[in-house]
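Q: I'm teaching a short session on how sequence maps to structure, and I want students to see two examples side by side rather than one. Could you give me a first protein with its sequence written out and its structure tokens following it? Keep the formatting plain so it prints cleanly on a handout.
A: Of course. Example one:
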Amino acid sequence: MKKLIIACLAASAFVAFADDNASSTAAAELLKHNKKDFLLLRAGGGKVEKPGTKKGEIVIVNAQTAASSSWIDEQLAYFNKETHFNVTQRSGSFSLPSPKVEGNMTIYVVDDPALPVSLIAPENRWAMMNIATLKSDKPAFYEARVKKALSRTFGQLCGGMASNFQLSLVGPVTKTEDLDQFPSAQLPFDILERMRFYMSKFGVEPAKIATYRKACAEGWAPQPSNDVQRIIWEEMHSKPTEPMRIKYDPAKGE
């Protein structure tokens, strides 16, 4: 009975796959030889980015040397992946009261014991995150605090001041040690979604992301980069571009 149920589920998945306008022959081969590629084909061939849809730039200016630049690099990669914004990094300096704004928004990472952990000035398009207040005799804590504080500053500058999830990274922090309670340096998804509308007012828009199948249907897909995308490419480009038209024959009536 158990084997019968599994067989029925597999058959249903295959039928659903065929109904999704995929090549049943190609699907059968992938299911037989490479289940990972079969699932990728079911998912539309993976995600691709439409060129020219990403607008604006958020610049992280590293104005300190005490914390490893690799920690900032890791958060930079995370911001780009999760928001699909154009987030870049460069070296520079920070000076109050009017820091130089680079790109559409600028986040400065500094090391100054005289400053608080962060300053957020969204109307002026800049924010500052201060690592001097985050130092710890435990290296792992120090690294985690820097990453968490940078994520908080990024979220707050980009419109995510508070989340529906009260225990998330943008929750209340009254002292440095409060950062240690958060399990990771990732922002909650409602903050990430809120950024899209907010940042559009500052000229920053995310790239358009779609499945490879949808990109083919819309006519902007890049050349296939693997066998799964090649199957989708050939299938989508073999479809007629014009609908079939049937002429009315008076002799046959309606």
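Q: Perfect. Now a second example for contrast.
A: Example two:
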Amino acid sequence: MKKRRFPAALCTVVLCLAIIAAIASYALPRQMQMTAFAAEKQSFDRQSVEKASVAFESAESIYEKLQTIVADELSEEEDPDAEYDPEEIEAFKNELGGDLAQIDMLLSSLDGLNSDAGSSEGKTVLAVREYLNMLRDISADMFELMEYYNELYEALMVFDELDADVDSYTDFASQLYDINDTVIGLMDAIDPPTYLRISHNDLTLRFKEFRDFSEDFYTASAMEDPLRTYSCIYRMDRIEAMLDKSTDNLTGDVELQFEQADKRLSGPIGTLHDELERNIALLLDV
């Protein structure tokens, strides 16, 4: 999926897509850092390590998928001609929902296993649980982002109802007002991810300014007042510029999350993944 942005043109407003997930930064707990363990065979709980290993390996495809998505997004350049595909995003959201269900199942499979932090087996189980929780956090954030994308898309696509083939400027201005009012109501109803709340509210404010402009443009057209009309045209240029700026801010906030996700995947999660891979092999002698 390629990067997309919201056009500022009045005839269509299409959602800017950057497939990514918003991730808070975590420090890798010291107690989860793994070292090679030399276990005494007499007391070694092999079953716990084997079950933890199955859970770890079963999440490998999710880990690799997250790496690929983030790497692809950070490497792609913006494609202004790319179209937003809500069905594609809905399918991806459903896939993430399946990943979340799988991770929850894997976490449940660790219940009842050795969790003694003083033993190599317990440390392994605890580390796998921490690893799975990290993957779950990223997947949940992506799922939330996909929901936001589609909700915002549905709100902005109301602009497709705009009919430029009208009999008068007053009819056009009235239509603009009604459409902006509908879009504002839909955007106010959206609960964006926390990291997008400021930029989302800022974009909503731009549409409120657009609605106010539509009302003034209606008055100027009805009065056939050239000075008022010229003033509205000047305001329209400013509103378009502010819409473009608000769109860039929203895009920038999403891209920042891509960067944070990349740092986490290549940092704490990647480190714990590699250490688990090595030490499980050592514990099971495989």
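Q: What should students look for in example two?
A: Point them to this: Residues 3 and 122 are 43 Å apart (CA to CA). Also worth mentioning: Residues 4-42 have pLDDT under 50 and may be disordered.
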